Amino acid sequence: MSKPYTESNLSEIFDTDLTWRRKELSDIKSTIKSTDTYSKPIFLKALIAMGYAHWEGYIKTCATRYFEHLTLRKLPYSNYERQIYINSILVRLDTLTQSRANVKERCNIINEILDGGNSRFSYINPLLIDTKSNLNTDVISDLCTICGVDDKYFISKRTFIDTILLKRRNAIAHGQQENIQADEIDNFVHELLTLMEHFRTLLENKVYTKGYSA
User: Fold this and answer.
1) Which secondary-structure segment (H or E) carries 32?
2) CB-based burial of residue 205 (10 Å sphere; 0-12 exposed, 13-18 middle, 19+ buried)?
3) What single DSSP character describes residue 6?
4) pLDDT tens digits, residue range 1-13?
5) Cβ(38)–Cβ(174) under 8 Å?
6) C-beta of residue 50 within 8 angstroms of C-beta of residue 38
7) What average pLDDT does the structure give for the chain?
8) Domain boundaries, given as residue ranges, for the chain
């Protein structure tokens, strides 16, 4: 797998990953439109399940590769916007909160955090890019915060994300009867791809404009 050393490398990775996802969604759409009446409900449910899988998979891939691009630059945290360093603290704060460390140990951790601003950004903890297997509006909003991008578009699409996509997908995952109507599939796939492409564009724009810089 190629590494996103340059902006164009990253764009190519985004393109390649989206292309096969778009093709799978297109293929199942074509199958739904051509299949018989009895088989159609099965493929409609499959479209929802597959649609959610691509939504979660692509968002996680984009965020992971974006941060990989930044770590490959091997620059100090001081060269980046504050959110980058805040990210390095978040997981440690969770650990500190959950641990039974004594006062001295907690002070040591806090001192390390306070003194760490001049170290190099070389690692993003994968726990921060956690879709929680339930990529709803609140989760994508958190990911936007981690990446330092605007979440307004996703907030405006809460009904689609949380109800049309997530609620139906969760029902199917729990063995319940749930699907979409055949005349909904074009709009469903369009909305889904638009959400995925929007997240990609936010990150891509940030890279090309050096919006992550201090």
Assistant:
1) helix 7-34
2) exposed
3) S
4) 699 999 999 999 9
5) no
6) no
7) 92
8) 7-74+124-208, 76-121
pLDDT of residue 1: 67
Give the distance, in angstroms, between the CA of residue 13 and the centroid of all CA atoms in the same chain.
Answer: 15
DSSP calls for 138-206: HHHHHHHHHHT---HHHHHTHIIIIIIIIIHHHHHHTT------GGGHHHHHHHHHHHHHHHHHHHHHH
User: What whole-number distance in Å separates Cα of residue 24 and Cα of residue 51?
Assistant: 9
Q: Is the pLDDT of residue 128 over 80?
A: yes
pLDDT of residue 155: 98
Closest CA relative to residue 4, chosen from 94, 89, 68, 79: 68
**Taking the mean position of all CA atoms in its chain, how far away is CA 48?**
18
Rounded to whole angstroms, the Cα distance separating 138 from 151 reads: 10
pLDDT at 197 over 90: yes
Q: Is the pLDDT of residue 88 over 90?
A: no
Residue with tokens 């949380």, as numbered in its chain: 162
pLDDT at 192: 98
Mean pLDDT of 195-203: 98
Dihedral of CA atoms 155, 161, 163, 167 in degrees, nearest 10, equals -130
Retrieve residue 133's tokens: 């297997």
Instruction: Work out the number of other CB atoms within 10 angstroms of the CB of residue 4.
Output: 22
> Per this entry, what is the length of the chain?
214
pLDDT above 90 for 103: no
